[in-house]
């Protein structure tokens, strides 16, 4: 089973701890069904972030949980939930799913935030898709970013691509 068994999980109480443990042992409906109408946005975020069972393909399981939440009409999914899934797919190098999820975000009318754009830059950059990463850099430049962490990622990606002049210009702006 899971060797990373979370010391972090100890900080969770009540239903979250029960759900996280149940998700490692039983199916989604059994693990989440009893809590279907009582989970807050924050609790859904924690559940999406804290999947630790590496015996299954984690990105796929994240998508299953995410889809389960989407199917339940009592669950509102927001940009933070989408960002968690984008980051997970990026780590798993599943770029076709990233593009699909981005299309879904647009179809659902969910407004992206700076961290969404920074996640996409990071995902495409680490996935070796330089042109896509630069496309997101340009989009952020056009929109005027105000998040220091995301701005740091932008500068880091410019320098990784060897575009030092653009990194310096971006930093000065």
Which architecture of the domain at 54-172 does the CATH hierarchy give at level 2? Alpha Horseshoe
Largest sheet: none
Strand segment count = 0
Q: Which class do the helix and strand fractions yield?
A: mainly alpha
Proportion of residues in helical segments: 55-70%
Order of helices and strands: HHHHHHHHHH
Number of helices: 10
Outline the secondary-structure elements:
Layout (H helix, E strand, L loop, with lengths): L13 H10 L4 H6 L7 H9 L8 H14 L7 H13 L3 H14 L5 H13 L3 H14 L4 H13 L3 H9 L1
Question: How would you describe the overall organization of this protein?
Answer:
- With 173 residues, the chain is mainly α.
- The protein has a domain of 119 residues: Tetratricopeptide repeat domain (Serine Threonine Protein Phosphatase 5, Tetratricopeptide repeat, Alpha Horseshoe), CATH 1.25.40.10.
- Helix 7 runs antiparallel to helix 8.
- The termini are far apart.
- The N terminus is likely disordered.
Summarize the structure.
The protein is an all-alpha fold and 173 residues long. The protein has 10 helices and no strands.
Key words describing this protein structure:
disordered N terminus, Serine Threonine Protein Phosphatase 5, Tetratricopeptide repeat, mainly alpha
């Amino acid at each position: 089973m899971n060797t990373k068994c979370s010391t972090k999980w100890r900080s969770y109480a009540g239903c979250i701890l029960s759900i996280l443990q149940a998700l490692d042992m039983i199916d989604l409906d059994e693990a989440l069904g009893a809590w279907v109408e009582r989970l807050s946005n924050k609790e859904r975020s924690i559940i999406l972030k804290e999947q630790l069972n590496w015996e299954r393909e984690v990105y796929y399981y994240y998508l299953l949980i995410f889809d389960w939440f989407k199917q339940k009409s009592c669950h509102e999914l927001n940009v933070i939930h989408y960002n968690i899934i984008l980051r997970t797919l990026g780590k798993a190098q599943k770029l076709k799913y990233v593009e699909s999820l981005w299309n879904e975000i647009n179809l659902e009318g969910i407004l992206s935030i700076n961290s969404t754009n920074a996640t996409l830059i990071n995902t495409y950059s680490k996935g070796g898709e330089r042109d896509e990463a630069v496309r997101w850099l340009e989009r952020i430049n056009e929109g005027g970013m105000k998040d220091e962490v995301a701005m740091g990622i932008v500068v880091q990606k410019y320098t990784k691509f060897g575009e030092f002049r653009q990194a310096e210009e971006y930093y000065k702006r």
